[in-house]
Design brief:
Length: 291
């Protein structure tokens, strides 16, 4: 695990500016297995970017940027205390380490693919590239679950008003609905946490016999910044915003902030401006002054 004092988390696009980051910032910074996965998986659609990806990976090594070699699924598993008696075994980070080494040792995409094929067969580059695409579907599936919860809460009774936590609100228009869900944000947040129990209960914990309510009640706050941002995002989707495929992976990056007050995500992506501005640092803020 990365030391808790690490302050700056570099998401994938920010790594392309790593050579410009001030020397004193790098020891306080880290990136993740997710960024490495995104870089490598991107070669499936853009093999012509092999040299650019290799350059970024070399820069990570040359600047000694720490990498947290876990994937978001583990953090989403551990955010429920109900997981504590159990251990999630994930071999993918070790495969990613191998693929990163192969890229650094190769002079072309074909040389890299041959090393991958000889070592991992069908369980290396191609497999992880498919998994990366499926993650977007996983988070979108959670989005759909949250949307369904909202619909059940607000549409089954055809209400012009609704009572939450002892307060009665008008919900007859989108604007009023938005006000309610921001005013009663803990309800929105709870629906979001509940949506993520599906993978927990049907995956590694399927045979344990826990109920959904038991799992929700065991939420420990580990990924609060992710949950809060995603809840706000889902509220926008419910009000008519069109989700982008890239949004889903972007949100996964927020899991690496955990619930540490001092951690920030380093990114120029506007999505973090909208949903967690207080936790976003622009790349330029950490770079050397322009000559």
């Amino acid at each position: 695990m990365i030391p808790t004092e690490q302050k700056y988390y570099f998401e994938t696009n920010a790594l392309f500016y790593l050579d410009k980051v001030r020397d004193e910032v790098v020891p306080e910074s880290f990136t993740s297995a997710l960024t490495v996965l995104e870089l490598i998986a991107g070669l499936r659609e853009r093999p012509d970017r092999f040299a650019a990806v290799k350059s970024v990976l070399k820069r990570i090594n040359s600047r000694n940027l720490a990498i947290e070699w876990i994937l978001p699924q583990r953090l989403l598993f551990e955010m429920f205390d109900a997981s504590k008696p159990h251990r999630l075994v994930d071999p993918r980070p070790e495969t990613l380490k191998g693929l990163m080494s192969f890229i650094l040792e190769s002079n072309s995409i074909n040389e890299f693919l041959e090393k991958d094929r000889q070592t991992f067969g069908k369980h290396g580059y191609e497999y992880l590239s498919v998994i990366e695409n499926k993650w977007s579907g996983t988070l979108m599936g959670s989005s759909a679950t949250v949307q369904q919860m909202f619909k059940q809460t607000f549409s089954t009774k055809k209400l012009e008003t609704i009572t939450l936590n002892g307060k009665t609100y008008n919900t007859s228009t989108k604007k009023e609905f938005e006000y309610v869900m921001k005013e009663e944000f803990p309800t929105t947040r709870l629906m979001t946490i509940s949506a993520f129990t599906k993978d927990f209960l049907t995956g590694p914990m399927a045979s344990v016999g826990l109920t959904k309510d038991q799992v929700v009640a065991s939420y420990n706050g580990l990924v609060d910044y992710f949950i809060d941002a995603f809840a706000l995002y889902m509220l926008d989707v419910m009000l008519g915003a069109s989700p982008s495929k890239n949004d889903t992976v972007d949100f996964h990056h927020l899991t690496y902030l955990r619930n540490y007050d001092h951690r920030c995500i380093v990114s120029n992506d506007k999505i973090f401006d909208r949903y967690c501005r207080h936790k976003r640092v622009k790349v330029d803020e950490l770079c050397m002054p322009k000559a």
